[in-house]
Amino acid sequence: MNTPILEIKNLHAGVEGKQILKGLDLTINEGEVHAIMGPNGSGKSTLAAVLAGRDGYDVTEGEVLYMGKDLLDMDPEERAREGVFLAFQYPVEIPGVNSTYFLKSGLNEIRKHRGEKQLDAMEFLSFVKEKVKLLELSEDLLRRSVNEGFSGGEKKRNEIFQMAVLEPKLAVLDETDSGLDIDALKIVSHGVNKLHRDDNSQLVITHYQRLLNYIIPDFVHVLVDGKIIRTGDKSLALELEDKGYDWIVTHQPVLA
Amino acid sequence: MSTATETIEGLVKQEYKYGFYTDVETDSAPPGLNEDIVRLISSKKKEPPFMLEWRLKAYRYWLTMSEPTWPHVHYPPIEYQKSVYYSAPKKKGDGPKSLDEVDPKLLETYEKLGIPLRERGRLAGVAVDAVFDSVSVGTTFQKQLAEKGIVFCSFTEAVQNHPDLVKKYLGMVVPYTDNYFAALNSAVFSDGSFCFIPKGIRCPMELSTYFRINAANTGQFERTLIIAEEGASVSYLEGCTAPMRDEHQLHAAVVELIALDNAQIKYSTVQNWYPGDEQGRGGIYNFVTKRGMCKGKNSKISWTQVETGSAITWKYPSCILLGDNSIGEFYSVAVTNNYQQADTGTKMVHVGKNTKSTIVSKGISAGHGQNSYRGLVKIQKSATNARNFSQCDSLLLGNKCGAHTFPYIEVKNTSARVEHEASTSKIGEDQIFYCNQRGLSTQDAVNMIVNGFCKEVFKELPMEFAVEAQKLLGVSLEGSVG
Predict the structure, then answer these.
(1) CA distance A235 to chain B (A)
(2) Biggest CA pair distance of chain A
(3) In angstroms, what separates the C-alpha of B4 from chain A's closest C-alpha?
(4) Chain A with chain B: Cβ pairs closer than 8 A
(5) How far, in Å, are B136, B176, B225, B254 from residue B192 at the CA level?
């Protein structure tokens, strides 16, 4: 047990010369759900971007191990094929590219990487049928272009649907709750919970506590000014909701 | 498909697949252009006097013209006196009577290009006329087509065997006075394809011409003439490739289409002439005049083009909508990568009543490529209830390329309805990253996004060609991101 999936050590990173993460440490083991909360500008989305390998983010210090391998050394697509998934805060529209074709291509790249057989169109369709139901998505969306003309809620559900299809080892959810009404939030959370297994892990990034009413984390971390300043269980999130980020900043325990 | 270790740099080095050269003995005219050369070409072709006369008129007219400077392209002056205007693989005796007698080297060339001409291995359902430099080396399925009264042969054969048809229709849509390159072509054209679909016949297979430039310092000037009589219909495909060379070569073709009452002609091009290297050395100058005339009522002409090759493309496949209720369509994907330049579009001239035209143009620019759409929609006074819809979209990859749009609209009848939509977008890093994050390589992501962008045009291509075009687009844009 306690096999680490992700080990972040003293991570310093920034964008366009601006230092954002300033010594972040975090270890996520198999089967665990972690939540990162923090005020705007604390570095939550930067962390997601660095983990997924988005261009333009510079790591100046520290290391990130994924399944014992140097994650920062891998191209974004290699990370994806190795099982790192990012649910985007702002899913991108790709006009003219059919959703089913897009996802099938991605899945087949990942399967190829794992040495598994590629799925043809028919196999893929029967494979996704169940997953569509899980997210209560209309099958019609699969026939449309990637995210094009989707409502905000549909885009977010589509992200979790893709996660269901690609079955990642580590899923990073970047503010998946933002812009969702309560019904959509429940559907998305239900989907995420269903996908939770003993051998995978989830990192849920959020600004608000309300998502954590539905996705119950094992650990809650508070990120302020590029560092995790407090770690606790789900009660920390409730306390935070009650007292606000200012409270935690001014009442920081003295760290060793 | 790519793997994670494959780098964009490696992809850049991917070579133009069709750049090989076939070593054959040729029968060539000396370089230069004068009346004697025109006469020589005509005599090589054993043409009747009316053809020679027409050529000479065209030549003399050409001498009075000057090269157009309005296209949005740049190139050093072409030295017309240095080019060779006739080059043909040497024939034994009187020349091959059938494909079995064609030089095996030539057959091999076409096989290498994926166009098998021998009886065995021929593309099912596609009749091919193979043009090598200045001459047609063979035409497949001629006999089967002749049973239906369809004439599909090289232009040379048409002039000899069907002089009345040639005399009647040649220059009807593109007169030799039309423009500089059309005049030059009319004077020195050496071969091309001729199709005649008689009244009421639906051509049972796709007709196709494959143009291959092989010899160096040679211009290729071919002429295609397609006539669909009343109620006839035909789908025609054109493909082109050339060896890689550091010098530029001129290709100035003329295509004329004529559709009589209720006839339909669908003309598809996948143009893959050698585009030049990454520095912009070499490549074909593709200066082409293509025009169709919907002469009869309810007739329809549809152009679909996928332009990925050539150093410079200058062409405007157009429709003159003469017959009432006639329809003109133009679907185009034009790609410019590295230092390629394209100035392409269409002209839709509405003359008859209730005529309709549709224009869908997709321009893709990468590297230092410059891509211009130039289109004219002209509604004449007589064209009551004419309709036009135009859509011009441009996609940019990188920040050194350019996209330009030059639409011209002339409306002389108040009942006309003309719509024009245009957009320019850039393949976003966000889109590519999104694809990467789902496991796709950058190259695959670009291909997918570009193919999505071109979908409306690809669906107009015949099935086999659509697949080919998608692949071609992938190769043309390799190395354009990173």
Answers:
(1) 33
(2) 59
(3) 6
(4) 83
(5) 7, 16, 8, 9
User: Does B5 map to a domain?
Assistant: no
Nearest to A77 among B4, B428, B431 (CB): B4
Among candidates B88, B417, B151, B472, which has minimal Cα distance to B306?
B472
Tokens of B78: 């072409």
Rounded Cα distance, B300 and B306, in Å: 20
Q: How far is A26 from chain B (nearest CA, A)?
A: 22
Chain A, 197-256: which have a CB under 8 Å from a chain B CB?
A: none
Distance CA B364, CA B395 (A): 5
Q: Is residue B419 part of a domain?
A: yes
What would the pLDDT profile of B70-112 be if each residue is shown by its tens digit? 888 888 888 888 888 887 766 655 555 566 666 777 777 767 6
Asked if B251 contacts B83 with a C-beta cutoff of 8 angstroms, the reply is no
DSSP string, B262-322: T-EEEEEEEE------TT--SEEEEEEEEEEEE-STT-EEEEEEEE---SEEEE--EEEE-
Q: Which B positions 451-480 lie with beta carbon below 8 A of chain A?
A: 451-455
- Please, which pLDDT band fits residue A243 given cuts at 50, 70 and 90? confident
Domain span at residue B89 reads 18-476
Q: Tokens 């998934």 appear where?
A: A85
What amino acid occupies position A138? Answer: S
Per-residue pLDDT tens over the stretch A54-68: 988 999 999 999 999
Higher pLDDT: A154 or B426? It is A154
What CATH number labels A4-250? 3.40.50.300
Whether A75 contacts chain B with CB within 8 A? yes
Contact (CB<8Å) B431/A102: no
Model confidence, pTM:
0.78
CA dihedral B232, B212, B346, B319 (to 10 degrees): -20
What residues of B are in contact with residue A55 (Cβ under 8 Å)? 429, 433
Q: Which of A55, A113, A162 is closest, CB to CB, to B438?
A: A162
Domain assignment of residue B415, yes or no: yes
**B7: in domain:** no
- CB-based contacts of B174, cutoff 8 Å, min separation 6: B182, B254, B255, B256, B289, B291
Looking at the predicted structure, is the pLDDT value of residue B10 above 80?
A: no
What's the confidence (pLDDT) of residue B91? 60
pLDDT at A151 over 50: yes
